[in-house]
């Protein structure tokens, strides 16, 4: 088994999230005397008939991954990537793969190795807390965030750790309250069954930190971890209890757990308008750029599929990639 650098590259992660983008998990590994590239992706049948041949496209699993260099001889990364790309092109031709869509990993910055292969574009930014500092509470948290943590303690907010998924029902209840309030896209909704199953697939790789007040669950966050990295993956809150500042205490506890368990960074995820001030309050680090990569592997068939969709007047978003899914 290849030793991958982050949870989003683990095959068990890819298997857990196959259903999100409707594909089958595949792994392509390239190794030569220079180095080793690992790439896991979801292979999706394209729902357009074109003769007897079934064509496919690729998307990386939910989260942040893409092809990643596992090892490489000094000053040979560009050569390794060129060799990888040539072999992967052959793979795509053999398996009737038309196009790729990659969500690169911001903290590993693997997109920098593949800029000559893919068309790269911005897709927002993410933030992280540096856990290698002496005291994350003093060195990373803003004065306002420190105040919020102290406020939660004064409000007698209690913290509960769940490493088995026993509190999934409460987490899911809170998540649905938040999702309804913020009108979250269906893509970011998760069933209770899915979350329960994820604890089986990702055993030892995730846990929930919940905040309780007077015995009631008021806030909870699902954390992921592998290697040097800890992730604040999903969070859920009941807005009636925002005044308790429970979520700030959960972030603090996540940092404490990460520090005690040798993690170097806690990633808070993407910045949205309603989360910007909250997340930025826990770190003094610069934001990380979230990049996506696209590539057409079979130009002729890609154009045929796009032309078909245009004739049927079925393209609603001309900026979408691949365009035949727009």
Short description:
The protein is of the alpha+beta class. It has 10 helices and 12 strands.
Task: Describe the protein's architecture and organization.
This protein has 326 residues and is of the alpha+beta class. It has 2 domains: 7-124 and 289-325, Aminopeptidase, CATH 3.40.630; 132-263, 3-Layer(aba) Sandwich (Aminopeptidase). It is 31% helix and 29% strand. Strands 1, 2, 3, 4, 5, 6, 7, 8, 9, 10, 11 and 12 form a 12-stranded mixed β-sheet that branches. Strand 9 (216-226) and strand 10 form a beta hairpin. Helix 5 (143-154) packs across helix 8. The longest helix has 18 residues, at 77-94. The protein is globular. The mean pLDDT is 95.
Report helical residue fraction.
25-40%
Taken as a percent bin, the fraction of beta residues is 25-35%
Give the number of domains: 2
Largest sheet: 12 strands, mixed
Shape: globular
Structural class: alpha+beta
> What's the CATH architecture of the largest domain?
3-Layer(aba) Sandwich
Oligomer: single chain
Low-confidence stretches: none
Number of strand elements: 12
Could you say what the CATH topology of the largest domain is called? Aminopeptidase
Number of helices, where a helix is a run of at least 4 consecutive DSSP H or I residues: 10
CATH class of the largest domain: Alpha Beta
Following the backbone from N to C, one meets helices and strands in this order, namely: HHEEEEHEEHHEHHEEEHEHEH
- Mean pLDDT equals 95
